[in-house]
Description:
Bound molecules: nicotinamide-adenine-dinucleotide
Number of strands of chain A: 10
Distance between the termini of chain A: 52 Å
Radius of gyration of chain A: 20 Å
Largest interface: A-B, 64 and 64 residues
Low-confidence stretches of chain A: 1-8
Structural class of chain A: alpha/beta
Oligomer: homodimer
CATH superfamily of the largest domain in chain A: NAD(P)-binding Rossmann-like Domain
CATH architecture of the largest domain in chain A: 3-Layer(aba) Sandwich
Order of helices and strands of chain A: HEHHEEHEHHEEEHEHEEH
Amino acid sequence: MKDFTSTPPPVKHIAEPTVRRLSGYLRFLEAFDVEGHETISSGELARAGGTTSAQVRKDLSFFGSFGKRGLGYAVKDLIASLREILGLDTRWPVVIVGAGKIGAALAQYRGFGTHGFDVVGIYDTDPSRVGTRLNGVTVRADRDLEGDIATLTPRIAVLCVPGEAAQAALDRVVGAGIRAVLNFAPTSLVAPEGVTVRAVNMATELEVLAYALTNESRD
Amino acid sequence: MKDFTSTPPPVKHIAEPTVRRLSGYLRFLEAFDVEGHETISSGELARAGGTTSAQVRKDLSFFGSFGKRGLGYAVKDLIASLREILGLDTRWPVVIVGAGKIGAALAQYRGFGTHGFDVVGIYDTDPSRVGTRLNGVTVRADRDLEGDIATLTPRIAVLCVPGEAAQAALDRVVGAGIRAVLNFAPTSLVAPEGVTVRAVNMATELEVLAYALTNESRD
DNA sequence: AGTACCTTGTGAAGGATTTCACAAGCACCC
DNA sequence: GGGTGCTTGTGAAATCCTTCACAAGGTACT
Lengths: 219, 219
Ligand SMILES: NC(=O)c1ccc[n+]([C@@H]2O[C@H](COP(=O)([O-])OP(=O)(O)OC[C@H]3O[C@@H](n4cnc5c(N)ncnc54)[C@H](O)[C@@H]3O)[C@@H](O)[C@H]2O)c1
Ligand SMILES: NC(=O)c1ccc[n+]([C@@H]2O[C@H](COP(=O)([O-])OP(=O)(O)OC[C@H]3O[C@@H](n4cnc5c(N)ncnc54)[C@H](O)[C@@H]3O)[C@@H](O)[C@H]2O)c1
């Protein structure tokens, strides 16, 4: 018999590291489910996600109570709960700005779609790129951006333009109503209150590695 | 007259967020230098990096004392100091494993080189990709991986293989002596003690955005 | 029905990081 | 040479995040 139903819980403010870990748990659970497992303990989840079992339980406890004491978590149920928590019980249309090397790679990335995100538009200033097709989506001129955002109502934009163009591109998508942006350009952008900007910065990632290598005298 | 010289400081253990911010400061300073500015205050640096001036000063203070009270920091000197702190006073050879869409995009990414990282090898199992050239580097067969690592002595590997192949690829590069890895596959990997693995996970980034959008009722 | 065993959920403790706030240093001007 | 104004460097306080540790709840087996 079903319980009546997935407690939409209190939830105050959740730390970003927690949200990142939840995403990681979900990723692992999906694979674990495919392998045919029915339940999982916080300990197993922790090992897979590189944390501790207490951390896993604490992370989940912010949103409700999903496990059975003595048994662990029902894999399928936990997947459903995590999807709901993360806002993945609906699909998210996404636009990509910049159809260069990285933009094209992303547009053709299948994992995008399998995680609930649909690329509904991709834009470029370069006339020679406009009109080419990437994974079923035709590259459109950047002047179509605002109109398309109005009609396709994506909520997320991915910026794959050169650093010099990134702030301007951000301003345009924000002006058109976008409130969540993933930025691949290696520049830090300023956005108005209420707009979430996340950056994927290759140089920073490599530099963190370089730092770790030069300071491996830590124990 | 030169001071005698950039204090190689005490330095205990530095938190990762600090290192990330230092990388961000460096990125901004390089642009700021090109614009011809000679000095910068912690406040300006903070605005550019999305933090506070106290945070900037605290971050730097772990490594020494780089500013002049009343004036701020000399841009060129601070750039040099940050490069040294991050281990960027030498160039880093890097190998890329997997010459698919993302691996190819990275291999052709110029920003890689301008930040001190040289792609010295790129490897793929697919015979149809082997032999193609990407930005001056020829794709080689994955069986050449261990030998090349021995002769080219890269210290960093970037994994751009499918999720199923990622752990095996990690094990191979680690076995060949690599101790720092950047993983683009959406799987969390386990590495032996002493090996630093960082992950760039597109799905997680988008999910954090989706979470932010669904919970924008935070003030 | 009772016992043994296992794993969750969670206050409380502990640790880490960020923010505060201010003394000290430096440049510039009168 | 003393005063003014600005900005750094840094202990101390505050906040945030993780880990601990254990009661509570559940299963399985006898
Ligand atoms: N290639 C990589 O692996 C990689 C990795 C990390 C970060 N990046 C960053 O991603 C961004 C793009 O890199 P890339 O390698 O794809 O470069 P690219 O030159 O291949 O692509 C950039 C594309 O953006 C288009 N563009 C320029 N201004 C535009 C605008 N205002 N609106 C729409 N489109 C515009 C250009 O026409 C071009 O097609 C850069 O900021 C780069 O630093 C790239
Ligand atoms: N394309 C993207 O935008 C994107 C974005 C984020 C993450 N990723 C991840 O990056 C990885 C690669 O994605 P992609 O889109 O480039 O896929 P792809 O299929 O285009 O490329 C994968 C390449 O790896 C090669 N390969 C497979 N096993 C290998 C092995 N053991 N050794 C060496 N090479 C091997 C394949 O021959 C292929 O050329 C995947 O894990 C994907 O999830 C891709």
